[in-house]
């Protein structure tokens, strides 16, 4: 239910965990473990007020698009609207982000990559380098490479075959025409943007599930995603899981050597801060730690 409150979500979560616990499915344990991962991932989103707000925003935008409604984007100014540092999140996939892996580019969820919270989002941090005197033309810089390459780091680019662009995207130093894009407001999704190759009109950066980030000339409905939310990088802490927040607390309390009580974990300042700032909960239940 779209209007389910926190208590209802928690009850459903516990019911599903009991239903799909791998110990109850010895014949097909692997499938049950997959279902548990999906259930936990959903609960991490729906049980976190800020992440749920982001999810609801995307869901509303997708429904508006499905209805055929188009937006008036004439008054939107990308230079004023886009955060200084951001994460690229494809519409309809609120748990996925464009990331660099070496000089290659992918679209990953936390489950797709083996990385800590900090390492995952470090490679998902981008900024725009606006081109002077050119309306909404820019370079998309990987912030994790800000001290590498030439002229301030590496940028999203694409390969050329002769004089024609190929779908493959990579990180390279600045080069013309491959690192030049025009950013425009999405006509379909409120708050979203899309990136068109500046010197190749009609070619857009897209997400092609499950993990591909490409430059394509035709948008294939239902197969690629052209529009992206540019999520302020300051919000990356919202995606810290309860386990990631509490593991350092347990370690500091001596958990690697001995049993640590739930009461001690609850009383820790880091625990209180996580619940207050990330989960937006002033009063906690022991159930949250079980």
Automatic annotation (TrEMBL):
Pfam families reported in the protein's UniProt record: DnaJ
SUPFAM superfamilies for this protein: Chaperone J-domain (SSF46565)
Domain J: 1-59
CDD domains to which the protein is assigned, alphabetical: DnaJ (cd06257)
Alphabetized InterPro entries for the sequence: DjlA_DnaK_co-chaperone, DnaJ_domain, J_dom_sf
PROSITE patterns hit by this protein: DNAJ_2 (PS50076)
Domain of life: Eukaryota
Identification of the protein by name: J domain-containing protein
């Amino acid at each position: 239910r779209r209007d389910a409150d926190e208590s209802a979500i928690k009850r459903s979560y516990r019911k599903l965990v009991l239903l799909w616990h791998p110990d109850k499915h010895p014949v097909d344990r692997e499938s049950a473990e997959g279902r548990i991962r999906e259930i936990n991932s959903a609960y991490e989103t729906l049980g976190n007020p800020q992440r749920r707000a982001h999810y609801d925003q995307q869901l509303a935008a997708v429904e508006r698009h499905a209805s055929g409604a188009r937006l008036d984007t004439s008054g939107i100014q990308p230079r004023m609207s886009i955060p200084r540092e951001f994460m690229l999140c494809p519409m309809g996939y609120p748990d996925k982000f464009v990331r660099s892996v070496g000089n290659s580019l992918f679209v990953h969820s936390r489950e797709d990559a083996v990385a800590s919270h900090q390492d995952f989002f470090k490679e998902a941090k981008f900024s725009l380098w606006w081109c002077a005197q050119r309306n909404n033309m820019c370079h998309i810089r990987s912030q994790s490479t800000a001290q590498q390459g030439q002229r301030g780091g590496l940028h999203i680019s694409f390969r050329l075959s002769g004089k024609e662009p190929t779908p493959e995207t990579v990180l390279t130093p600045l080069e013309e025409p491959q690192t030049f894009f025009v950013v425009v407001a999405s006509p379909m999704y409120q708050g979203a943007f899309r990136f068109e190759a500046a010197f190749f009109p009609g070619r857009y950066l897209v997400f092609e599930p499950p993990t591909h980030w490409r430059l394509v000339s035709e948008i294939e409905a239902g197969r690629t995603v052209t529009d992206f939310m540019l999520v302020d990088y300051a919000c990356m802490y919202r995606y810290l899981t309860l386990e990631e927040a509490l593991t350092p607390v347990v370690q500091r309390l001596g958990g690697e050597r001995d049993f640590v009580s739930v009461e001690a974990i609850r009383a820790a300042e880091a625990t209180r801060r996580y619940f207050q700032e990330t989960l937006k909960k002033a009063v906690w239940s022991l159930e949250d730690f079980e």
